[in-house]
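User: Can you model how zinc ion sits in this protein?
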Amino acid sequence: MTGSAQIVRIGASAGDDQATCAARIAAKARPGVRPAVWPDSPESRYDEMMPGRIHAVLDRYEFDGVPVAHALAELTKDDALHEGARQWIRHAVETYVASGVHGGPEPLDAVRRYWVTQHVNQRTWELYAWGRRYQSADGLRREFRFLRNGHARQGPLARTQVAIAAYTTAFGSPADWPRPWREPFRPAAGCPVSWVRVVEVRLLDGSQDVLFEGTVEEAEALYAEHGRERVRQIAVGGPPRASADCADCKLLSTCPAVRRAPNLLGIASQRRALRTWSVSDGRYYATCPAQEHLRRIKLPKIDEYDPDAIRGHAVHAWLEETHGGMPRVPCRMGDTPLRADDWTAGRWHVTGEEAMLGARMIAQHATVCAFQHADHITEVRLEPSLCYFDDATNLIILAKPDMLYLENNGWVWREIKTVRRHRRMDTDVLQRFPQLALGVLILSANLLGGDPSGHRVELETLTPDDADIEPFDASDPAIVVHARAIVRALAEPWHRDDVAVAQPGPHCHECPVRRWCPAYPGPGPVS
Ligand code: SF4
Ligand code: SF4
Ligand SMILES: [Zn+2]
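Assistant: Here's the modeled complex, given as structure tokens:
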């Protein structure tokens, strides 16, 4: 890395306690630090930063006086946006404007410049928040608005995020966005503020919550309680933890936490824009390229999980909790939910028939629990996030096995599938569950270490009435060749494609992003 660490710039989003990698956030907080050599990465065909696009349209409306309809019409000529992305942006902007920002007895004016606090000692410390800003004509009343998608899986904003937003709204001075980013903010003279509000607006439905409302003294107290120490920790950073966020990290080319795995997927080494890829992405793409793209750019999803999927997640979460205890003991038939018809595991809650089926599957698991051989197991990783960088194709490959365990120095990659009844005997299991095929490739490349001759992948199948294990030897050349063909067939068409054309069909009825897709044929039968 090179450049200057003189400026420490922390935005409210850095306070997200769901963020996976403290090293990345700390690096991001140094706008003057950059890689010594930027990796050569082509631009992606489509713009994937939807929040930036939504703000840009709102800027045209609020600051340039362009009517909303005209500002949105400007997008139709923009071929850096997928048609589904345009539909979401249109919805989000119209919903936001209709949510009544400017209503109420004391209307507020939109504020173009950021509110930035800047404190100079050995370093230049800057705090800001990214969102919409409004103030009264005399400047005494200020309001900051977080814009969020609003889908069900978004939890509440972290208290640090709210504290930074409240503090910068109360004490920040107006400043333009630094260009280039490595330059400091240049705040104008501050003006007194007496009252502050921080609001969250959800763009899916226009609903809003007031997250903070009070005087500047109260904003300072909130920051003292939830912001100041956390900001210091954010700046210090922590150990790297690989995840999908690595694709947006300036440390990627030097990070020790992301192992290089050239040609892992076995696809032609044509360089594309840096992207992540998982088996799920491959499956979404195989169903419909547009669906994969619209999921990738994080458009709000509806009806993402059917009852079978929710029950499957609940069973996985239950077993993960059970296996997380120490000492490691094998599960027993009786280790099932107290109330079989109504139980919760992790963030999944099931009731009625689905809950009963899930409880029976958990009971069946006892007969195949990996910990029956706990005395041979020296290490266990539950739902680990695995992340490899193929710098030939510029892909970050992500995988999350249900369980990894080291048995006699060979890694066992176990995936658990829950089904109502067993599949046909002639099913090609690696083809049916390509995450097993990717597991074979990762183990055969010895990316986890250990004794390569002992690595295997296991499929644990749980039904309400029985359970079984199917092993695949990751050192068997025939299995590796087959696994490579499966993974390549899933990844290569996606890697080549940068248009993501919609492929409507019966699957559209279960597509969680159908609301944004112009090709969605509607709820009736699809020919
Ligand atoms: S490359 Fe990934 S693991 Fe490494 S610092 Fe960046 S986000 Fe963290
Ligand atoms: S609605 Fe159908 S065509 Fe549109 S993205 Fe979803 S699956 Fe593809
Ligand atoms: Zn078990």
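A couple of observations from the model: The pocket of iron/sulfur cluster (ligand 1) is lined by residues 21, 23-24, 240-242, 245-246, 249, 251-252, 255, 257-258 (CB under 6 Å). The CA atoms of residues 108 and 136 lie 5 Å apart.
User: Helpful, thanks.
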